[in-house]
Amino acid sequence: MTVTPLGIPRRLLEFTIDGQEVRVPECSTILDACRTAGKDVPTLCEGDTLRPKNACRVCVVEVEGSRTLVPACSRKAEPGMVVKTGTERVRHSRKLVLELLASSVDLSTTPRAAEWIKEYEAKPDRFGPDAARLDEEPRVDNDLYVRDYGKCILCYKCVDACGDQWQNSFAISVSGRGFDARIAVEHDAPLTDSACVYCGNCVEVCPTGALSFKSEFDMRAAGTWDESRHTETTTVCAYCGVGCNLTLHVQDNEIVKVTSPHDNPVTHGNLCIKGRFGYQHVQNRG
Amino acid sequence: MDLHFGDSRPTDDERAAVDALLGPPESSWEGADRTDADLRWARGGREARDRRDLLLPGLHALNDRIGWISEGALDYLCRRLTVPPAEAYGVATFYAMFSVRPRPATVLHICTDLACTAAGAAGLCDGAEAALGPGVHVERSPCLGLCERAPAALAVRAGDPVRTAVSAPATVEAAVLAATAPDSAPQEPPAATAVPQAGQEGQEGLILLKRVGVVDPSSLDDYRANGGCTALRRAFELGPAGVIREVTDSGLVGRGGAAFPTGRKWQATASQPDRPHYLVCNADESEPGTFKDRVIMEGDPYALVEAMTIAAYAIGAHRGLVYIRGEYPRAIHRIQHAVDQARARGLLGDDVLGQGFAFDIEIRRGAGAYICGEETALFNSIEGYRGEPRSKPPFPVEKGLFGKPTVENNVETLVNVLPILTMGAPAYAAIGTERSTGPKLFCVSGCVARPGVYELPFGATLGELLRLAGVRDGLRAVLLGGAAGGFVRPDELGIPLTFEGTREAGTTLGSGVVMAFDDTVPLPGLLLRIARFFREESCGQCVPCRVGTVRQEEALHRIVTRTGADAAGDIALLREVGRAMRDASICGLGQTAWNAVESAIDRLGAYE
Amino acid sequence: MRKRQPKTYTRLTHPLVRDSRDERFRQASWQEALDRAARGLERNRDAFGMFSCARATNEMNYVAQKFARVVMGTNNVDSCNRTCHAPSVAGLSAAFGSGGGTSSYEEIEHTDVIVMWGSNARFAHPIFFQHVLKGIRNGARMYAVDPRRTSTAEWAESWLGLNVGTDIPMAHAIGREIIHAGLANEAFVERATTGFEEYRALVEPWTLSLAEKVTGVPAAAIRELAHAYARAERAQLCWTLGITEHHNGTDNVRALINLSLLTGQVGRWGAGLQPLRGQNNVQGGGDMGAIPNRLPGFQDILDPGIRLKFESAWDTVIQPHYGLNLTEMFEAMEEGSLKAVYCIGENPAQSEADSEQALRRLRVLDFLVVQDIFLTRTAELADVVLPATAGWAETEGTTTNSERRVQRVRRAVTPPGEAREDIDILCDLAARLGHDWKYADAEAVWNELRSVSPDHYGMTYDRLTEHQGIQWPCPSTERLEPTYLHGRLWEKDPARRGLPAPFGLVRHDPPVDLTDEEYPIRLTTGRRLDSYNTGVQSGGYASPLRRGEYVELCPEDAERYGVTVGEEVRVSSRRGAVVAPVWVDTALRPGLAFMTMHFPDEVDTNQLTIEANCPIAGTAEFKASAIRIEKLPVATIVR
Question: How far lies C105's CA from each of C146, C201, C269, in Å?
Fold first, then answer.
C-alpha cells in the first residue's frame, strides 16, 4: 500500500535561460525555472499560494519567437524554449513598470521596491509633478485592518484570496476600469457593511502594505514598528480543533501580527478571524 | 454560496425586470416569499452557481427598465443568480453604458470620437445639453460606429420596453427630438445608405455586400431568393472536414485585425477532444471608425446566421453566441429577428435542415467596453465577469468560452465563408493577392464625399479606395486601422491594401478603417483624443497599460501646442512608455495604444 | 444596533488563596499556594477528580493524567471533550477500535461527495471548510444535514432541514434506501462488517415516507442524498456537535458510521469519516489518556497487559477499572463521593449544560484548585488559584488536531508575572505529594510518552518539525503511514483485516426535553464565526462581527410574538430563564430558535440547556431544549 498518494509523475523538460541549460518538471513556469537556476526575477503580483495573475508585468522576460515579452510568473516552460532575462528590452520594460507604479502609488512599504528601482535605474519622478497618483486616504473602518489604497498596485491577490481560490467570501472585487479601477466592496461601502469575515487572508497576500493589520498600521504611524526587533515563532492556534499553524510576530514581548506558513498542509497560509486576530487575551496582562 | 446581502430591497419594477429575464424565483432563497417547502429543503450548489453568464443580461434588463442599477436591484439580481454582490458591482462598474448611481431614464450618447469630432461633435454636445436640461443625461461617447453619418447620437430611454433612437448626421434639434421623443424620431435610413456601392452599377459583382439594399433584411424568404442557404447545403455535402479544408484552402484569414488563418483555427478547435465546443461571433465592433459589421448585420443578417451555422458544423459546436456591441440597437434587433425566423424555419434548432445537426444561436449584448472586442475579454464578459483579457496561452481553441475549445471569429470573417463554399476555394483564392485572398470591406470616413463601407478585392491601393469615396482636397493624413492602427501621409496612397502590403509599408490594415483628415483638423487634438480613448478603455488589469495610457495622455497634453525642441523631452518619454506598453501589456489594447501616436510623430512629423 | 462589549479577562499573575469560600482571594507565594493545594488534595485522596485541559499541550495532558493515576491513584480524569466529541470517540472506537477521524483534510479536496451533518464548519472550523471548498471547486457535491440553513448549508447542492434530534431516523432511512436500491457495497459488508442482517431488519421500518414524517424533510431529498452517498466513488461524511451533543450522541454517531459501513465509504483514500473537533487539543487530550477509560496512546485500561506496561514504566499500580467521566464526577460531587477537584484550564461553571446545577455542585466541594490563565467563573469558586501559561504561545509542546496530526507548539512570548507552566506546577505538586518527577523540558515528557505509546513512537520533535506535523498512527521513526485509517478492512487476508466493524444497532430516541404548549420552541445551540466557547479567549479582541448574545428566531416567529430585532425578551426553559435581545434569521423556521454560549456573563444560555446525558459518552443534550419566548412588559422609564 502506498504511504501517501504519489501523484502523477512529471517528466522533466529542458530549455535554456540566458544560455544556461535548465531542467524542470513539466508544468513549471519560467519563474520556477529562473528561481531554480538562481536568477532573481522581480515579482509583485505573483503569490506562492495563488494562481498567477500576471497583472504587474514586472517579471517579464524575453522568449525567442515571441512578439512581445512574456510574464515569467505564468508562462509555462516548454522544451527548447530560449529565455533571456537580462536583455535591454527586458530591463526597459521592468524599469518602466517600476516607474509607472512608483509614480502613481506609494511603494514605501513594498518589500524590495526600493532595491529594484535602484537596480533598474528607474526614475519615477520624470513624469513630472502633475503625474496622476492614487493619493487616497487610508480607510480605517474597523479595529482589525486598514485599507490604504494609496499603496494599492491592483495586483488582484487580495481579490483572489478572498474569492474562489481560498476564502470564498467574495467580499471584495475590482470595480471601475482603467486607472480608476479600485479594489472595493459592493457599492464602495465600508468593510463593516460587506461580506468581509475578517480572516485577514487578503492582508496575508498583499505585496505592498496597502492592506495591513491595524496593529502594524498604528505602530507605523507612531514610529514604533521595528521589524529588526521582531521574532517569528510558529505554533498552533488555540481555538478550534483544525490545528492551524500560526506564526506569531512578536516585538518587545507583544504579538503584533499573525501569519501562517504558506506551505503548511493545514492552512496553506490562510487563517480565520480567531486565528489571525484572537491573540489579544494572552497579552491582557493587567 | 453563503453570500452577504445588504438591507436594500428592489422596487417592484426592478424585480419585474429581472424576473422577465429569469422567470419568477423558485424559492425564498432566491427572493420569493417563504413557503413551507423552503423551510426543509433548499437546492443550491453548482446548478445555482452555473448561471453566472446571465449576469450581464440581468444588468441590461435593469438598466433597460430603470436606466440605472440600484443597490437593491443589484442585490436581487445577485440573489437570483448566486453571484457575490461585490463581484456583480465590479462587473456593473466595468461597463460605460451602466450606471450604479441614479440618473435620468433617458441617456443621449453623443459620439465624440475622431470622425464625429471632425464633424462638429463638440458643438452638438453643448447644444444638446443646453436644450435638454437635467431631464436627460448627455454622455460623451467613444465611437458609435456611425462614422458614415457623423456626427452621431444614440438616445436610450429606459422603460418597458426600452426605446432607442439614432440621430445621424445629428443636429441639435434632431438629437433633442431623439432624446425626448424616441418613438416619433425619424426612422434611421436603411443600412444600404452606408454602402455607396449599393444600388450602383456593379453591385451584383460584389461578394460580401451584394445583398445589402437588395434583400429585405427581415425576410428569410427574400434571403433564400437571393442565394441564401446554398452555402449551408454545400457544407452538409462536404461534411465538417471538407468545410475546414475548403476554408483552409481559400486562404481566408481573420478580418478582425490579427489576420490569423481561419482554417487553422477551426481545425485546431475541431480536433480538441474536450467538449462541448463553442462558436462565438465577435460583433463587438468598437474600433473607432469601424462599422462594416453593423452594416452586414443590419443589411444582410441571415448571412451571419448561415455563416455561423456552417462554422459550428465544421468545428462540432452546438451552441453559438453572437456578442454584439450595446451601441448597435438596430443590429441587435435584426439579428434577433433573423435568429428567431431561422429557428422557426428549421435553419436553427435540433435538426438543422433535416441533417441531424443541432445548433442554436444566443445573442449577447455588450455594454460599452472596447476591450471586450479582445477575444478572451469577450469570453469573460459573456461569462459574467469583468471584461478583462486572459493571458494566453492557453489559446481559445483549447480553453475558450467556459474553459472549452472555442472558435471566435468576427462578423466579416464569418460571412466570407459563404462565398468560399459557393464559389469553391480555388475561385475564392483567386481573388485578391496571393497572400491576402478574397474580398475586403473598408470603412471609409472623414473628409470624403461618400463615406461608407466599400468592398474591394485585396490589392487595391489606398488611393483607389479614397478616389472611389471621393476624397476631398487638402488631405493631411489617413488613419489606417483605427485608433489601434497608424497614420500614413497623402504621398503614400500607393500602399496596396493587403496585409503584406501595409506591413511592408510599416503600417497596418487593422480592421479596415480608412479615415481621412484634411488640414483643418489639428493633429495634436486628434492624438489627444486617441490617447484619451485608450486611457478610458484600458481595463486596468496590467500596469503598462493602466498607468502607461495615463502617462501618454499627460505627455500629449503637455505638448499639445509645442513643437521641436520644446516637445523633444516628452516625445522621448512617450517613446519609452510606448515601447513598454507594446512589449509588456497583456493584450492588444495596451500593445497598440501607442501605435497611432508613434506613426503621427514619425510619419507625419506631428510635433516638428 | 448597539455594540455590547463582552467581559474581558485579565491574565492571572500571582497565585491566589483564601481560607474559606466567603473570603476574598489574597495573593500568595507559590510556596504557600502549592503547600495549600497539596494539603487539600492529600486529605481527599480517595475522592479526587482531575479536570484536564483540552486546550493545553499533549505533554501537559500526559503529565496531568499521570498525576491523577500515579500521585492520586485514580482514573478519575477527564476534560471538556465530554461536553463535545466524546460520543465520536466512543462511537468510532466501538466500530473500528480507534477513536480518531478516519480521513485527512487533503482527502476531502479530492472526494466526490461530501456530507456535512450537524456541522456548520464554515463558522466553527473555517480553515477545514476551505478544504471542503477546494473539494467543491474540484467538482465534489456537498450535502448539508442541519436544522438550520447555515452558511455551510448555503454551499450545499442540497440542504436537508431536519427536526432537531431526528438524525437516527434520517440515517436509517438513508440506509434502508441504499439497501433497497441495491446500492449497498455487498463485498465490503460481507468482508469487513458484522451485524448486517440485524441492521437491515432495524432500518426496514424507516421508509422514506415515515422518515419524512419524523424528520420533516421531503422524501425526495433523503432519497437523493442516499443515492449520491452510495453511488460516489469516494465520499466523506463529516459531523460536528449537531450529532454528538444529544442525550444519545453515541447512538447518533453509530447511525452515521453505519452508512459508511454499508457503502464501503471508509478505509480508502478520499473516503472516510471526519468528526470535526471543537478545541485545539481535544483529540490529543484523549490520546494522552486524559480520559477515564484509556491510558496514553488510547490504550484500554481493562487490558492487563497494557496496565502492566504502564505500571512498570511508572512504577505504580493502576486501578483496573474505568474512572469517572466528567459528567459522572459532577454527579459524584452531588453525592459527596467526590470532594476535591484539580481543574486545569477548564470553565465548567459556564460550559456545562444546566449551569445552575454545575455551580451548585462545585460549591459543595471540600477543595477546589483551579489552574488557569484567567480568573474564570470556575476559578472564582476555588480555594487555590494557580496562574498558568497560555499553552499555545507561552510553552513548548505539541497538540493534535482533528486529522490526528501532532504539531509543535512553541513559546513565542514570556508569560506575565509569576505565571508558570502547567507541567512545572504539576511536578511541584507531585513532589509535595511524594513523587519526584524530573522532566528537563516538554520534549522529555514527549519522549516518555513515545516510549509507552506505539502510535506516537515515530514522532520525534525533529520529525514533527520536518514534516510540519505527523498524523498518528506513527509507529516507526523511518516511515509515514497512510493518511487514512482502517485500510485493513479492505484486506483480503482475514488475519490482516483484523476485527470486522460491527453495525451499530441503535434506535431513534427523541430529545428528552419535549416541546409542549408551555415550552413550544425548540432551542438549539452552536458557535459563531468570531467567537469561541465561553468567550474567555475570544472576548479579548475587537471583532467587527461581534454583536453579543441574541436569541435568534425566524421571521415568522418574530412576527408571531410581536418582537423586533434588538428587543429584549424573556427566554425560559424548564430549568431557568434568561433575558436576551432578539435577532431574526431566515436560516431558522417556525418553532426553532438558536443561541450560543459565547457570552455567558451577558446571557447565560446554559441556564436553559438540559443536562440529559448520553449514557455511553456522558455528553449533554445542548442541542435540544424546549423554551418559550415572552415579550417583556414595556419599560416605563421616566427621564
Answer: 21, 35, 11
